Amino acid sequence: MITAGVYGLIGGAALFIGALIGLYLEVSRRVVGAVMAFGSGVLISALTFDLMEKAYQLGGFDSVSFGFIAGAVLFVGGDYLIDRGGGYFRKRGHGMRHAAGKVTSGSSQLVGSGSAILLGALLDGIPESAAIGVGLAAGKGVGLIMLVAVFLSNLPEGISGALGMKESGRSRGYVMAVWGATIAMSGVAAALGYSFLGHASGDTVAATLALAAGAILAMIADTMMPEAFEEGGRFVALVTVAGFLLAFVVSHLAG
Q1: Quick check: 116 pLDDT over 70?
Q2: Spatial separation of the C-alpha atoms in residues 227 and 231, rounded to whole Å
Q3: What contacts 24+ positions apart, CB below 8 Å, involve 98-107?
């Protein structure tokens, strides 16, 4: 359980590092897009060859299908509600797409709800961290592979999130507080995932792994890949492929 919590904290720490980069360094849009595309490729590989494959081995098609669809529906539904509450500025590209044509850059309406932004950040981060804990409980290096994938994907998420909240009018202190809370919850989610599912039935673990995979894939499709393309252009596709290949190689070497 302690190991799972530490893994979750390490994965979440990339958000804080990314936020520092976004707030204090000049990072070009193309670099942000490229790094986000690379992280997307890594996550897609990890959820395909580790989360879903392990889930299938433990529970078969029924548990996997139920969990995967449920995870995607929960993320999309939660994301929709949070965006309506003003949480869309937790990421730069996400926020600008929602705000385009609705408000002017100087309008007070541009400042999203603080609680909604925090909930949105947690919605993005909790499934990945829970997958780390459940992966450790499932064994065979799944937790370690997910840690690497989450860390690499959270770095650009932190950069994008910091830029988005900064452009919505939030202070640097607020941005760091949001990511600090997200890191803490990431550690808790990983520890709870390991603790509660360490001795659960194969079907339960399978459904939970698949649920995390469905939520992560929905998050990639909803926020990461659109922003990567918007910021980096069409050639980010090649960077995504590179991230996928690297994670694929690491997964099989670790296995």
Answers
A1: no
A2: 6
A3: none
Tokens representing 209 are: 């792994």
Cα dist from 128 to 24, 46, 84, 114, 196, whole Å = 26, 11, 23, 22, 16
Provide the total of helices (H) and of strands (E) in the chain, helices listed first. 10, 0
Please tell me the distance from the alpha carbon of residue 177 to that of residue 181, in angstroms, as a whole number.
Answer: 6
Tens-place pLDDT, residues 20-74: 888 888 878 888 888 889 989 988 998 888 889 888 988 899 999 999 999 999 9
Q: Which domain holds residue 60?
A: 2-254
Total domains, the chain? 1
Residue 7 is encoded by which pair of tokens?
């893994």
Q: Flag whether the pTM goes above 0.85.
A: no
Residue type, 205: V
- Give the integer Cα–Cα distance in Å for 157 and 12: 10
Please answer whether residues 66 and 207 qualify as being in contact, where contact means their C-beta atoms are separated by less than 8 angstroms: yes
Q: Cα(first)–Cα(last) distance of the chain, in Å? A: 22
Cα–Cα distance, 54 to 50 (Å, whole number): 6
Residue 234 in tokens: 């069409």
164/208 Cα distance (integer angstroms): 31
Closest CA to 214 of 120, 130, 127: 127
Task: Check if the beta carbon of residue 21 is closer than 8 Å to that of residue 161.
Answer: no
* Pick from 190, 214, 218: nearest CA to 79: 218
- Residue 187 has phi, psi (to 5 degrees) of -65, -40
Question: Could you read off the pLDDT of 72-101 as tens digits, one per residue?
Answer: 999 899 888 887 777 666 666 555 555 554
**Coil vs helix vs strand at 116:** helix
